[in-house]
Design goal:
Blueprint: H1 2-22, E1 40-46, E2 52-58, E3 74-80, E4 83-86, E5 88-89, E6 102-104, E7 115-122, E8 127-133, E9 140-147, E10 153-160, E11 168-175, E12 181-189, E13 197-201, E14 211-219, H2 221-236, E15 255-260, E16 263-269
Parallel strand pairs: 1-15
Antiparallel strand pairs: 1-2, 2-6, 3-4, 3-7, 5-6, 7-8, 9-10, 10-13, 11-12, 11-14, 14-16
Length: about 270
């Protein structure tokens, strides 16, 4: 019995000694962070026969107090077909919860291969520019649907992938009957479907009578890369064990995305 108590005392003493020694392991290390330089951020999605809208913001230091990121005074120029157009101030789209603070009411009809450009200069002489090339949309052939035993419906959007081009897609389904909620939104390439008749689908997220906005975007590769890296950055933010992610932008002198968004869209009401 005495041997047990003696061994217990020795064990407690060793643990206490170890804990005391741990205090010597604590050391404050001062890390000098590189000087932060704010950049312009351009976000614009160019649609066929639609006004040109641009969200212009600026990057902020991760450790600073959050402030309004929108840059309200700047010279924003959109160029197409040898002509340049200055964008004016724009008001937020409350209905669709979008805020593009610069806009051009003119619209344009684009052809395959057409180039569009944007250049920005603000009052602090920061400059950024980008370009994008129009690609024609891939047409939706048909919309299918199926109900399960709970009278919940899924939909399938059928199309044929072009065989002679590498395509990148974004598939999006909005339920117009449910406060315009986005029920499906993903992006992919045609690596496994090249040149075939195929379909994108949803889960059993709908019911009879739902009015759905179904969009198939044929997006440029740089927009696809932007989406991939942006998702990776969101996933790693705040995770100390995640590998740092850098968002790959097509904007020179700044960040963000300036891209054409060709799409085919159908409104489908579930019967």
């Amino acid at each position: 019995m005495q041997s047990i108590f003696r061994n217990t005392y020795i064990w407690i003493f060793c643990v206490a000694l170890l804990l005391c020694s741990c205090n010597n392991f604590t050391k404050e290390v001062e890390i000098k962070l590189p000087e932060f330089k704010s950049q312009l951020v351009i976000e614009a999605y160019i649609e066929d026969n639609k006004p040109i809208k641009v969200a212009l913001t600026e990057t902020q230091n991760y450790f600073d107090t959050l402030k309004n990121p929108f840059v309200e005074i700047a010279n924003v120029i959109f160029s197409y077909n040898g002509n340049s157009y200055k964008l004016g101030k724009n008001f937020p789209d409350i209905r669709n919860r979008k805020y593009f603070n610069f806009a051009l009411n003119d619209s344009f009809h684009f052809q395959e291969g057409d180039m569009v450009y944007i250049s920005v200069k603000d009052i602090n002489n920061r400059m950024a520019n980008a370009q994008s090339r129009w690609i024609n949309p891939v047409k939706l052939d048909s919309i299918g649907f199926s109900y399960n035993q709970k009278e919940q419906a899924l939909i399938t959007a059928h199309f044929k992938d072009p065989i002679n081009a590498r395509n990148f897609y974004r598939f999006r389904v909005v339920n117009l009957s449910d406060s315009n909620k986005v029920k499906q939104d993903f992006f992919t390439d045609d690596a496994t479907i090249n040149g075939t008749k195929t379909a994108f689908g949803t889960g059993f997220n709908f019911k009879k009578g739902d009015s759905l906005e179904i969009s198939l975007f044929n997006i440029p590769q740089d927009f696809y890369t932007f989406l991939e890296t942006a998702n990776a950055a969101i996933g790693s933010n705040g995770n100390p064990f995640a590998q740092p992610a850098v968002i790959k932008s097509n904007v020179t002198g700044g960040s963000g995305i300036f891209t054409v968004v060709p799409y085919d869209r159908k409104i489908f009401v579930l019967p």
